[in-house]
Design goal:
- The protein is an all-alpha fold and 233 residues long.
- The chain folds into two domains: 1-106, no CATH class; 112-232.
- The chain has eleven helices and two strands.
- It has helices at residues 10-31, 38-52, 62-78, 88-94, 99-105, 109-125, 133-146, 148-154, 163-179, 186-209, 216-232, and strands at residues 54-55, 58-59.
- The chain has a two-stranded antiparallel sheet with strand order 1-2.
- Strand 1 (54-55) and strand 2 form a beta hairpin.
- Helix 1 crosses helix 2 (38-52), helix 7 packs antiparallel against helix 11 and helix 9 (163-179) crosses helix 10 (186-209).
- The longest helix is centred in the C-terminal third of the chain and has 24 residues, at 186-209.
Length: 233
Amino acid sequence: MEKNFYGIRPKAFVVLFFPVSEKILLFWTQTLKCPKTKWDFLEIIPLLWYNFGVKEGKTLADSNITKRALAVALKELMAEKSFDKISIGDICDRCEMNRKSFYYHFRDKYDLVNWIYDIEFISIVSKKEYRSAWELLQDLCTYFYENRTFYRKALQMEGQNSFREHFRDYLHPTLYTYLEGDIQERDTLEFYVTFFTDAYICTIERWLLEKEPQQPARLLELMKNCMRSFASD
């Protein structure tokens, strides 16, 4: 059996980090002057990561390597079948990892889905300064559209730990922040925020479930026109 690094066998590791591995390959062949072939090098990639922990100049925590491997596995499986038919065993088998490694990082598969959203989207928007809620929603629509195969199924999950509830927990306070400057009365503010949160989540879900979803910009335009129509009445 292949030796494991971080709970990931070399073959799975190469699939995840091949683009970065090319950079390390130059270091391996030029700086260290090691006359190794590319395939010999691929076998020691995990060891290099273990010693240096470098990705594009930044330290990469060991746990993130395992989490990303599990995330890739779940995304692949969700492109093949419904979420409720995917087991923890399926996820672990896909990335050649044991169940102990999975439960060390995540409570369940719902937790993994939520982590994917957090790491992919929230980490992006946290680096930007939005002038309005519409700018944020534009990026959100674009993100969901580009990852619609995954989120079509993620938004249909039900239950306390479902992605829908996780998304609501993120969206509600975000909209609250943008609206509180315009609406002074607390009860009215809470009603508006809850209303727009529910409306947006339902709209996104219905949009993604369409066979050919409209482009994000067009969806946002329709949403804005709808709001203006209500406001004018």
